[in-house]
From TrEMBL:
The species this protein was found in: Populus deltoides (Eastern poplar)
Compositional bias segments (type: Low complexity): 54-79
Pfam short name (any one): F-box-like
Protein name: F-box domain-containing protein
Region (Disordered): 1-22, 53-87
Gene Ontology CC: cytoplasm
Residues of the F-box domain: 124-161
Spans traversing the lipid bilayer: none
Residue stretches in coiled coil: none
Top-level division of the source organism's lineage: Eukaryota
């Protein structure tokens, strides 16, 4: 069987060079001089072989050929894959991610006696060289290398035993034993990252728990075709048994049903795709960060008020809280403020249409030291922004208010003027062109809808003027009602104008000398050309990204509902 990344010897290479690797694990054994079992002309095995090449052929190799020639022929063989990219800071991990070529193991101590060349002859290498070669193989190649010979097998075992972090991609229709067999090779594993393209069931979950008793960090992500079948009871047992577990992140948690998590070591918990939870009990006194992302289905029966109330009583050290649910309400905000989490620094309550300015008042009265506030998808208005600016001028550095239809350009400008520490602001889908969202009365015959459209005409075609000395990232994606933009931000490096289709090129002025990236998917070509001409000296990248994707900003990502992404497109 041939492995793509396994170093091999082409047929024309003389025999004897493979024996050079078998002696890696026996450095003190006396070398045995054996005869050549391969043909000296063509390199094929002699048994039952009649060579068709004449004795004067250029491929003839005598047994007395130096080992240097054989080694060079292997390293320069055209059948080997191209050399991998070198990285200056190699991380301590074994990566099973096909898109990531960095699959390196940590440095380990090697006995000085193994540093010597093992004997003399063809293709002898020290253990240190073999280690450096095998540690650059992808994990599939490392598994294959372990079956080549005894020396390679021992070196690969050392690599697996020294691994502290493992990134494993589980292909579709893989057997549960595949995950267990790989994890058992890494007894010192402390960080595990699984990318599942097959279903996650109790058997595979038990393999993870049994094979890695000292896990500290676990991340499990699922593909669109994979199903996470783990129940709440199984998750609770896993967390309780892992006494060293500090971080747990899991996607596709739609089958939990309910759970009770008890852990004195857990400090970070991310669960996504939650749905219809009958109970949520958190007994994690050292929990500092929690992210609960619920499904977007309207029939979700989870009691968020009871969940938030219990979370505040049992997790007093919480610093970062993220909850994304369409069932978020003002009552849930009041329950969170009643918890009196004194260390709270980052608060993200996303997609709660019932969150209003009154909720902002409750938040500002209970938590006055917030550094990040994300109320995307809420119903707050410019008045709520005013209260935010009055309470958090000395602490708030990141403000995210995407998908808030009651916010106007005046509120955006007021926030940037009153928050001097602001470094990131997301106002996507706030200033929208209603004419592209509502049909006319002739087309629909709905007079009430047309009246609503006329009452909101004042929101169309607004301008934004921002002057800020510390702002680094500004996102105005989907602001189709924006027709003029004036920025004077010397520290701005990233600007998102995706789907700002009514923005006029002659009404755009960017005085941003540090600008590196502008996102302008769905904009007119004239606008793109105008931006390029203004920042031609400092322009680094003009990327096209989907309007429903939020940039990496340190906060949790918010997936735009499908009906909104269709309007943006």
């Amino acid at each position: 069987m041939h492995f793509e990344n396994q170093p091999h010897i082409p047929p024309a290479t003389p025999g004897g060079s493979t024996a050079s690797f078998t002696s890696l694990d026996i450095p003190h054994r006396v070398k045995k001089n054996r005869g050549n079992y391969n043909c000296g002309r063509c390199g094929l095995p002699k048994k039952g072989h009649v060579c068709h090449l004449p004795p004067t052929s250029t491929t003839t190799t005598t047994p007395t050929q130096t080992p240097t020639d054989s080694s060079v022929s292997v390293s320069n063989s055209t059948s080997r894959p191209p050399p991998r990219q070198q990285y200056s800071n190699l991380r301590r991990a074994l990566s099973f991610d096909d898109s990531d070529l960095r699959c390196d193991s940590p440095e380990v101590e090697i006995d000085e006696s193994e540093m010597d060349l093992f004997g003399s002859g063809c293709g002898k290498l020290p253990v240190s060289c073999m280690w450096e070669i095998l540690r650059r193989l992808p994990p599939a190649g490392l598994l294959a290398a372990g079956s080549v010979c005894k020396g390679w097998r021992e070196t690969s075992r050392r690599l697996w035993r020294a691994a502290e972090e493992l990134r494993l991609r589980v292909p579709p229709r893989s057997q549960p034993g595949f995950v267990g067999s790989v994890l058992q090779k890494c007894p010192g594993l402390s960080r595990l990252n699984l990318r599942l393209e097959s279903d996650l069931d109790s058997t595979m979950f038990a393999c993870i728990a049994f094979s890695c008793p000292n896990l500290e960090v676990v991340e499990i992500s699922t593909s669109e075709t994979a199903v996470n079948r783990i129940t709440g009871d199984e998750l609770g047992r896993f967390v309780a048994d892992k006494r060293c577990l500090t971080s747990l992140k899991m996607e596709g948690c739609s089958n939990l049903g309910g759970f009770v998590l008890c852990s004195s070591s857990l400090s970070t918990l991310w669960l996504s795709d939650l749905y219809c939870l009958s109970k949520m009990v958190f007994n994690c006194p050292n929990l500092k960060e929690i992210s609960l992302d619920f499904s977007r289905q309207e029939n979700d029966s989870t009691d968020l008020i009871a969940m938030v109330d219990g979370l505040g009583r049992s997790c007093p050290r919480l610093q970062n809280v993220h909850v994304a649910s369409v069932r978020l309400s003002h009552a849930a905000v009041l329950a969170l403020t009643a918890a009196n989490l004194r260390g709270l620094r980052m608060l993200s309550l996303v997609l709660g249409t019932e969150i209003t300015d009154a909720s902002v008042v409750a938040i500002s009265q209970s938590y006055s030291k917030l550094e990040l506030l994300d109320l995307s998808g809420s119903s707050i208005s410019d008045s709520g922004i005013g209260m935010i600016c009055n309470v958090f001028p000395g602490t708030l550095s990141r403000l995210l208010l995407a998908l808030c239809p009651n916010i106007t350009s005046s509120g955006i400008q007021f926030a940037t003027a009153q928050l001097p520490l602001l470094e990131l602001m997301d106002c996507g889908m706030t200033i929208c062109d209603l004419s592209s969202q509502y049909p006319t009365s002739d087309e629909s015959g709905d007079f009430e809808l047309q009246t609503t459209f006329k009452n909101k005409l004042h929101l169309i075609y607004q301008k934004v003027i921002i002057k800020h000395s510390r702002l680094k990232k500004l996102s105005l994606w989907g602001c189709s009602g924006l027709d003029a933009l004036y920025l004077n931000c010397p520290e701005l490096i990233d600007l998102n104008l995706n789907s700002c289709k009514n923005l006029h090129p002659e009404r755009v002025l960017l005085q941003c000398p540090s600008l590196e990236s502008v996102h302008a998917s769905g904009c007119h070509n004239l606008l793109i050309e105008g931006i390029q001409s203004q920042v031609s000296n400092n322009f680094a990248a003009m990327e096209n990204q989907f309007p429903n994707k939020r940039l990496a900003d340190g906060s949790k990502r918010v997936r735009v509902p499908q009906f909104l992404s269709q309007q943006v497109g």
